[in-house]
């Protein structure tokens, strides 16, 4: 097990700010505030305008981000051909790389390539995709990501159907694997996600729409702890 994975596992539950919602005009300030608020992991939303109907940023921007913080990066590749660009994201300084089963229906080789490069390998699943499509690949993952909205845009409403997926996948995971949920995760929904088995929570609006990122972090964790008592 890598040191990075060990560190993340020991700090669960993990609140991961979704950088799609940050102020890109003031990244120095954003990273300073996120570090001060002690977030353990940053979620980088990479979109190609093809796999999803939106375009965000790629490895060049991530490389510049890497110079501004030591926080771990999970690059969520919402792109059609993640294998083609894998080396670029590894070189940019990503600590985890998550791609979609819908883009790579046979992900064994790509998951292996990611892990061989001392990077955590994640597999994501969309709301309309069955858990059965990823079941046999779960043992090869460090992280499984359940989308609770359609990928591509921030600010969408949480889909409760994600909870059944989380429960199903949680029953298939080892203790050294992370179960993440992304989309509409906020104080009203995060407790149900934790109860369903998630331990990593990608949060965008529920952090970046708040004036105080530390208070946002505390509030989200308190909502999880209420369920776990």
Explained architecture:
- With 229 residues, the protein is of the alpha/beta class.
- It has a single domain (3-228), classed as Aldolase class I (TIM Barrel, Alpha-Beta Barrel).
- Helix content is 37%, strand content 18%.
- The protein contains 9 helices and 8 strands.
- The protein has an 8-stranded parallel β-sheet, sandwiched between helices.
- Helix 3 (59-66) links the parallel strand 2 and strand 3 (73-78).
- Helix 7 packs parallel to helix 9 (213-228).
- It is globular, with a radius of gyration of 16 Å.
- The two termini are 29 Å apart.
List the helices and strands and how they pair.
Blueprint: H1 3-10, E1 14-17, H2 27-36, E2 42-47, H3 59-66, E3 73-78, H4 82-91, E4 96-100, H5 108-116, E5 120-125, E6 143-147, H6 161-170, E7 178-182, H7 187-195, E8 200-203, H8 205-208, H9 213-228
Parallel strand pairs: 1-8, 2-3, 3-4, 4-5, 5-6, 6-7, 7-8
Helix pairs in contact: 7-9
